[in-house]
Automatic annotation (TrEMBL):
Family annotation (SUPFAM superfamilies): Sigma2 domain of RNA polymerase sigma factors, Sigma3 and sigma4 domains of RNA polymerase sigma factors
Listed Pfam families: Sigma70_r2, Sigma70_r4_2
Stated family: Belongs to the sigma-70 factor family. ECF subfamily.
Domain RNA polymerase sigma-70 region: 24-90
Protein name: Sigma-70 family RNA polymerase sigma factor
Species assigned in the record: Rheinheimera baltica
Keywords, sorted A to Z: DNA-binding, Sigma factor, Transcription, Transcription regulation
Cross-referenced InterPro entries: RNA_pol_sigma-70-like (IPR039425), RNA_pol_sigma-70_dom (IPR014284), RNA_pol_sigma70_r2 (IPR007627), RNA_pol_sigma70_r4_t2 (IPR013249), RNA_pol_sigma_r2 (IPR013325), RNA_pol_sigma_r3/r4-like (IPR013324), WH-like_DNA-bd_sf (IPR036388)
Domain RNA polymerase sigma factor 70 region 4 type: 119-171
Entry-linked PANTHER family: RNA POLYMERASE ECF-TYPE SIGMA FACTO, RNA POLYMERASE SIGMA FACTOR HI_1459-RELATED
Length: 186
């Protein structure tokens, strides 16, 4: 089946085509939800972020100029809204929120081990400063380039790279430390 580009769906949606609007939303809502889940830590907050971003999108779709990819523009909105939510709610990190991550596969031993590793990574991500966590999220999970992230966050590419590598170093050191502690307990 022919997959329409975001730009063609936008043009049709702006002309009142509800099916095109729904396709556009369906194409990006899952990535936006998981972005919010990893950044904010709870399904409720992720759902609130998704609704907020979609409302902004509905009101401002006509303002998309095509200077960057639609996905980059959309995640720029999501970044701004997520930071606003964190400031307004004075969000506190909670390891309990990690338990809310939905399981997507059956629990076989190798998948369980992978899930535990993913949980460790998520816990370490939550310990990072929000600026570093956001850069890792956009680079690894959303697969944006350093330049696209810089545009979204209105900072230089060098600042993005600095935050990225500093975050990786912090996570590596902490994960190595955790691994040594676990080995010592056996």
């Amino acid at each position: 089946m022919f997959k329409r580009s975001d730009e063609s769906l936008i043009a049709k949606a702006l002309n009142g085509d509800q099916h095109a609007w729904q396709q556009l939303v369906n194409r990006h809502q899952s990535a936006l939800f998981y972005f919010g889940l990893r950044l904010l830590g709870s399904q409720e907050d992720a759902s609130d972020l998704l609704q907020d971003v979609l409302m902004v999108l509905c009101r401002n779709l006509g303002q998309y100029r095509g200077d960057s990819s639609f996905k980059s523009w959309l995640f720029g909105i999501a970044n701004y809204r997520a930071m606003d939510m964190l400031r307004r709610r004075k969000y506190t990190d909670s390891d309990d929120a990690l338990a809310e991550m939905p399981a997507e596969a059956a629990e076989m031993p190798e998948q369980l081990a992978n899930q535990q590793q993913q949980q460790q990574v998520q816990q370490q991500l939550r310990k990072l400063p929000i600026e570093q966590r956001l850069v890792l999220e956009l680079k690894f999970y959303q697969q944006f380039t350093f330049d696209e992230i810089a545009t979204q966050l209105a900072i230089s590419s060098n600042t993005v790279k600095s935050r990225f590598y500093a975050a990786l170093d912090k996570m590596r050191l902490q994960l190595e430390s955790d691994h040594v502690e676990q080995s010592a307990n056996f």
